[in-house]
Design brief:
- With about 450 residues, the chain is an alpha/beta fold.
- It contains 18 helices and 14 strands.
- The chain is globular and about 70 Å long.
- The structure holds 1,4-dihydronicotinamide adenine dinucleotide and uridine-5'-diphosphate-glucuronic acid.
- The site of 1,4-dihydronicotinamide adenine dinucleotide (NAI) has 26 residues, from helix 1 and helix 5.
């Protein structure tokens, strides 16, 4: 008989994981504490924008033509406990307010609620990103609370999906990492991740702390690559070099690789920034803070990029205050193909200029609702063209395809001045310059 799966927390990670598990053929029951999310998902609507997720959902939620009906939703912990053989915990682990450390309260609450309802043999699988050492404590919570006793146990299975590619990354991961304490846990996870998902995919079996560390070290490495190239951008800026050419040239070395070397306003989102900070905080708690002091520099280079974009805009506008200047901002989300504005560098830059008196108008293909919620005082336009109308400068801050495909000549007709600042090094400078625009980007020569 096929395993029955539950997913706790239906955000970016959990909703995708639940739909993907149904796609693999499992019966899936997903729970969230937010009623509106559950109601949306039951209607086949995703609470967030993620390419391909709605289609996947509707293939498996009952009520849609040809759907398998394998994916259901609930808010009832007892139903979850009675249903699942394997429970994936996908709740949020944000940065604590006013601290670097990770806020574990959502994971602790979810695992506490779940454990109390584990009335039959079950494997609880943590997928949230947590500080090393967390799984050990959570295993003790399960042992203390689960009515099933020793038949309920914990495993840790970190997730590496990228927003914007969540469905693809979940169905075709480049590796699966599991931290386990028993052969049974390993066997169950091998069964979950058997073909087609697991075919040819490296399956790394390890202990709890290594599994937890794999996740935070992977994100730290990615953050380091981005801050490295942004430091090189500053060197290029100071010396007249071109960071895009530099990235291409060093990237031909396989040991370095071309990916994650796009200089610009830096990394944001609900993961990289908070994960490197939580990692530093944990190092401190373990008494080895010096091991990760380099991450402080990675973080500070990253945060500096946002301010440098603001200064680039100021200089390009002739220096002095932004007061009375009209600025169009293209992009609000932390990356393209997502509606996620958590710690978005684009909104941060827009907000800084707004707070310095600039008249900022923002347009984003999918992030407008979320942006309005967290930054209600900015002005918003319904299209790139409307945002650019009458602007003294255009800031390209999230590299949506829609922006790469803009016609610079047509846009030039509505702008007050043809000044484009590319905060993502993603537009074609030659194209914009040919249409009469002054093109500026971080770490690239002026002409
Ligand atoms: N978003 C991403 O691309 C990835 C996220 N992660 C990690 O996955 C975890 C979740 O991240 P997201 O999905 O982005 O967060 P999210 O905030 O989008 O989703 C978390 C969900 O958990 C729910 N929740 C909170 N407490 C709960 C509880 N006690 N019981 C049941 N549900 C509860 C929330 O209502 C929310 O819907 C985090 O640890 C994150 O670091 C890992 C890889 C990728
Ligand atoms: O732990 C997580 O949640 C996830 O965090 C990141 O995924 P994600 O946050 O979706 O986005 P990325 O594609 O990593 O981009 C992060 C930020 O870095 C920026 N970035 C990326 C690449 C680059 O070359 N330059 C650059 O500035 C992006 O614009 C974005 O703001 C990791 O890539 C995932 O593997 C991981 O699972």
């Amino acid at each position: 008989m096929s395993l029955k799966i539950t997913v706790i927390g239906t955000g970016y990670l959990g909703a995708t994981h639940a739909a993907a598990m149904a796609e693999l053929g499992f019966e899936v029951l997903a729970l969230d504490v937010v009623k509106e999310k559950i109601e949306m998902l039951e209607r086949g609507e995703t609470p967030m924008y993620e390419p391909g997720l709605e289609e996947l959902l509707r293939r498996h939620v009952a009520g849609f033509e040809g759907s398998t009906g394998r994916l259901r939703f609930t808010q009832d912990w007892a139903e979850v406990g009675a249903f699942g053989d394997v429970h994936f915990v996908c709740v949020n682990t944000p940065q604590k307010h006013g601290e670097y450390a990770c806020d574990m309260s959502y994971v602790e609450s979810a695992i506490g609620s779940l454990a109390a309802h584990l009335t039959r043999p079950a494997l609880v699988v943590g997928k949230s990103t947590v500080p090393v050492g967390s799984a050990d404590g959570l295993a003790r919570t399960i042992a203390a609370l689960a009515p099933a006793g020793a038949d309920a146990e914990l495993a840790w299975n970190p997730e590496f999906l990228r927003e914007g590619f969540a469905v693809q990354d979940t169905l075709h991961p480049d590796r699966i990492v599991v931290g386990v304490r028993s052969e049974r846990a390993e066997r169950l996870l091998r069964e979950v991740y058997a073909t087609p998902l697991g075919e040819g995919t490296p399956f790394v079996v390890t202990d709890f702390p290594t599994a937890e560390l794999v996740k935070t070290s992977a994100n730290s490495f990615l953050a380091t690559k981005i801050s490295f190239i942004n430091a090189m951008a500053e060197m290029c800026e100071a010396s007249g070099g071109d960071v895009a050419k530099l990235a291409e040239a060093i990237g031909y070395d396989d040991r370095i690789g071309k990916k994650f070397l796009r200089a610009g306003i830096g990394f944001g989102g609900g993961c990289l920034p908070k994960d490197i900070r939580a990692f530093m905080a944990r190092a401190g708690e373990l008494g080895v803070d010096q091991a990760l002091t380099f991450l402080r520099e990675i973080d500070s280079i990253n945060m500096r990029q946002r301010g440098q974009m603001v200064e680039l805009a100021r200089q390009a506008l002739g220096g002095g205050p932004f007061l009375g200047r009209r600025i169009a901002v293209l992009g609000a989300t932390f990356k393209p193909d997502s509606d996620d504005v958590r710690d978005s560098p684009a909104l941060n830059v827009a907000g800084q200029i707004h707070l310095q008196g600039g008249q900022v108008t923002v347009y984003d293909p999918k992030g407008m609702d979320n942006a309005r919620r967290i930054f209600p005082t900015l002005a918003y336009a319904d299209s790139a063209r409307e945002a650019v109308r009458g602007a003294d400068a255009v800031l390209h801050l999230t590299e949506w395809r829609e922006f790469r495909e803009l016609d610079p000549a047509a846009l030039g007709e509505v702008a007050a001045a043809r000044l484009i600042l590319d905060g993502r090094n993603a537009l074609d400078p030659a194209l914009w310059r040919a249409a009469g625009w002054t093109y500026r980007a971080m770490g690239r020569p002026t002409a």
